[in-house]
Each structure stands twice: as C-alpha cells, then as structure tokens.
From TrEMBL:
Enzyme class (EC, first level): transferase
GO terms, molecular function: histidine phosphotransfer kinase activity; phosphorelay sensor kinase activity
Domain Histidine kinase: 1-99
Name of this chain's protein: histidine kinase
Catalytic activity line of the entry: ATP + protein L-histidine = ADP + protein N-phospho-L-histidine
GO cellular component annotations of the record: plasma membrane
Domain (Response regulatory) ranges: 121-234
Enzyme nomenclature, EC number: 2.7.13.3
Length: 241
C-alpha cells in the first residue's frame, strides 16, 4: 500500500497502473507505475534511506520506503525504481514464487480462549487514526480497549484506569513513546509496555528494548504477531494460567 499511496501523492493527472509478472527466475515482480513528476536519477537511491523526503511539503515521515525495503529483503527479494523527471515513476519489488505452507498458530486456541475470559484492559497510545482503527478492530472483541492520542494522555489514562497492558507508539505529539513509558514506569514498574513502531531495523529494536520497553512490534502490524506478543506478556507478567 505504501507504493500505491506514494503514487497517488505525486500524480496530479494521468494514470496509475498496478500489476505483476512471473519472471523466468521464478520471482514474482510487482510494480506500481504512475504518470507523476518523476524522480531525478541522482536521488533515486536516497529515497530508500530513512527520513529522506524529496518533497518536504508532502505529508510523511520518510520511513515508508526503507521499511518496504527491509520487508522485501527479508522475504528474499529486491526493491527499486525506474524513473525520469517529467515521465513518471515505476516502483517495483520482487519476491520468490513459493507455495504457501500452512503453519500452526503460535498460540493454542484453548490458551487464547482462556485469556479471553479475563477482564483485560489494553491501552493503545497511537496518534495515527488508521493505525489505531486497525489495532482496535483486531483486539476489541477479546479485550477492553482504551485509546490515547499522545504520550501525555497515555499517562493520564493509565492513572485513571490502570490497564493491564500498553501498546505504545514511539513517534507521537506532546510527549513521545519514550517519555510516556518513563512516566508510566514511575507509576508502575511492572505493567507490560510494548512498543509498536515504524522503526523496523534490528538496531531500532535493540535500542527500544534497552530503553525499558517489554516488547517490540514493527509496523505494518501482523495480527497474529500482535496477539502472540500480548498473550505472552499477559501470561508471563500477569501470571494468567
């Protein structure tokens, strides 16, 4: 979706084309082509560097393409762009064409059902409405959900409701995730706090865990991984059995 969103941002007229092909080396090549402004040759490598934005007037953090690159490379593929100024751009990525293997769920259904019976409240600190709606849709049937739009509100909601677990975005207004985590730790050293962030590199995870978070989930969020992390924390830290 990041490639499609970027195409929409930079295409004022013309068309956007989405498709895929199976290459001779058995790699699937997906592409998003647009008729937008195009990207200078000397800037095309820069856009896959974190926090680099070619147009500072367009909304975004400069993390989308680097995260896409990390995901694609972990899947065994490559990502790139073909573009000329004034002639649009084609962003593409490849992934191996493999048969899907059915995997066992990381948490047994009886374990999940057991946790569902508990009166568990989760605080989600997230300033992006789309991200919150996604997590809320995944979790609301099994847990009570509180929502904070920024780090300061997260501290206030924790004081008022003492939730059992916190999902904390890092990059938020007023007070970021690190500051909110420290404020909540002053109130309770034991409540599990999981960082949910677009910082998706191994070094980011190490820094986040070293700073005092109990867990880490990179965006885009996998529902199965989200459940697994939450249930691990609730089982171990809250001793649900």
């Amino acid at each position: 979706t990041n490639l499609m969103t970027n195409a929409l941002k930079f295409t004022d007229g013309g068309a956007i084309t989405i498709g895929y092909t199976l290459q001779p080396d058995n790699m699937l090549r997906f592409y998003v082509s647009d008729t937008g402004c195009g990207i200078p040759k000397d800037k095309q490598k820069d856009i896959f560097t974190r926090f680099i934005k070619l147009n500072r007037f367009v909304q975004g953090t400069g993390l989308g393409l680097p995260i896409c690159q990390t995901i694609v490379e972990r899947m065994g593929g490559e990502i790139g762009v073909d573009s000329e100024v004034g002639n649009g751009a084609t962003f593409w990525f490849t992934v191996p064409n493999r048969k899907v293997k059915k995997i066992k769920k990381p948490i047994l259904e009886q374990e999940r059902a057991h946790i569902q019976k508990k009166d568990i409240t989760i605080l989600i600190a997230e300033d992006n409405s789309s991200n919150f709606k996604f997590m809320n849709a995944v979790l609301e049937k099994e847990y009570n959900i509180l929502h904070a739009w920024d780090g300061q509100e997260a501290i206030e909601l924790y004081q008022a409701h003492t939730p059992h677990l916190i999902l904390m975005d890092i990059n938020m207004p007023v007070l970021d995730g690190y500051g909110a985590k420290d404020g909540i730790r002053n109130l309770s050293p034991d409540v599990p706090i999981i960082a949910v962030t677009a910082y998706a590199f191994a070094s980011d995870e190490q820094e986040i865990l070293k700073s005092g978070f109990d867990g880490y989930i990179a965006k885009p969020i996998s529902p199965d991984l989200l459940f697994k992390k939450i249930e691990e924390m609730l089982t171990v830290r809250l001793q649900i059995s």
